[in-house]
Amino acid sequence: MKKTISVLSLAVATGVLIGPKFAGDSFQTLLEQQVEQINQIPGYNVELTRYEKNWFSSAGIAKISIEPSAIAPEASDLSAIQFETEISVDHGPVTLNNGFGLNRISWQQEVINSAELQEKLGITESLYSSKGQVSLFGSLSFMEVIPAFVIKDDATTINFSGYQSKAWTGNDGQLVYEGVTDALVIKDVEQDVSLSDLTMNMTADIDLEKIREYLLYDGEVELNIGTVHAALNDESLFSASNLNVSYLFETSDDDSKGDMTMQYGVDAVTASNLDLTDVSFDLTLLNYSTEFNKVYNQEMIKLMNHDSRFDPAQINQVMTDSLPLFLAAKPEFKIDKIHFSLPEGSFDSNMSLKLTDYQLEPAQMLSSAFWMNNIQLDAAASADKKLAEKLVALVAAQKMKGKRGITSSKVNEMAEQQAQMMLGMFSAQGMIKQEEDKYTLNFSMNNGEANLNGNLIPLPAI
């Protein structure tokens, strides 16, 4: 029995002594892999300028450079952004730098502020910091903090309330992320813009190997903004409440493709002569190819690393070369819903698009006749009668604005008359249908034939 206890004690002691070395090696390998991955992205460069690994801890400094012009051509006037971040790591099984814990590793990271930046932002702590750990059982948790700051110059003041987030992996291995910001306010002499109650929530099956290979993985992201408000000389120009953007991706059982859903919504939007409510815009892409995503992204990275000017001809060539992989999964595109309401009524529409034959030869991709004969398209729209009249009148009024000798009230009166005439003409021609208090439209294309509201239409006439 004593011998057994002695063997167990030796095993535990060996684990405590040797474990930190393995944890330190693993973290360094992972860090170097992430640096390599980031450096493949145009406009970003990370360099480990110092990394010292000891038995129980490691520490290093990474220099990060961001070149805005390589990310967006319109940002060519912006100079490069450079900063350094300091990383300190404790190797488990016992870690201390985030308080006592039993972990494989724990870490802290802080952006190194310059004295000039601290003075400009009015902060003493790091502009960005994070800390986290990987437990003995492999679960991950971390927190991020951006402190509140104020930027002032002669004309503009930016007031940011700060950002905090927390993340963890659940029992199913999914990463859960939650971030929140109370407010962002930008003011100058005449204008001010404010956003409040910003939150971001994410759940994803994060797999670093999949990310490196541009493969697909399940995930869901939701961004919410409580209010947005813009004013000029203290007079409200625009306001919106409860803005929501969500993204959901679900892969197939064999990971060869996935379904993507994007939803945009706003509870209410108020602006000059506009009072929108219940705004929704929902999109779905079914059967998005994993192989296409991998090849297309790899080729685009190569292209942008070679030449960051975003040559449209080269980008189109990459898309054309990758298109057969995209079509091989038989994708379908849907606008599930476009909806909004005004005091005059509501508008609704939807659309679906797919192909009859996905087996394409390269020459067929350039044939408009082939595409027209293989597209399956279904679309529908409806609007309450008073709303349709208002929308058409707004278009007509916009065309008449600025004409000499016509007052604004006269423009609106003429526009309303034109709207009723135009809707009557469209209805008589069969382009729209009037059903009680609604105008509706139904359009489809199938096997080279087009149908509008039950009437066949010669395709050349479209």
- Note the gap between the termini: 90 Å
Assess the beta-strand content as a share of residues: over 45%
**How many DSSP helices?**
9
Overall outline? globular
Number of DSSP-assigned strands: 23
Description of the molecule:
The protein is built from 9 helices and 23 strands. The N and C termini lie far apart (90 Å). It has 462 residues and is an alpha+beta fold. It is 28% helix and 46% strand. It has a 23-stranded antiparallel beta sheet that branches. It has helices at 2-38, 68-71, 115-121, 208-212, 290-306, 312-328, 368-374, 385-400, 408-428; strands spanning 44-53, 57-66, 81-91, 94-95, 101-112, 129-135, 140-146, 149-152, 157-160, 163-169, 175-187, 191-204, 219-232, 235-251, 257-271, 274-289, 332-342, 345-355, 375-384, 433-435, 438-446, 449-452, 455-457. Residues 1-19 have low confidence and may be disordered.
Write the SSE topology.
Layout: H1 2-38, E1 44-53, E2 57-66, H2 68-71, E3 81-91, E4 94-95, E5 101-112, H3 115-121, E6 129-135, E7 140-146, E8 149-152, E9 157-160, E10 163-169, E11 175-187, E12 191-204, H4 208-212, E13 219-232, E14 235-251, E15 257-271, E16 274-289, H5 290-306, H6 312-328, E17 332-342, E18 345-355, H7 368-374, E19 375-384, H8 385-400, H9 408-428, E20 433-435, E21 438-446, E22 449-452, E23 455-457
Antiparallel strand pairs: 1-2, 2-3, 3-5, 4-5, 5-6, 6-7, 7-10, 8-9, 9-11, 10-11, 11-12, 12-13, 13-14, 14-15, 15-16, 16-17, 17-18, 18-19, 19-21, 20-21, 21-22, 22-23
Helix pairs in contact: 5-6, 8-9
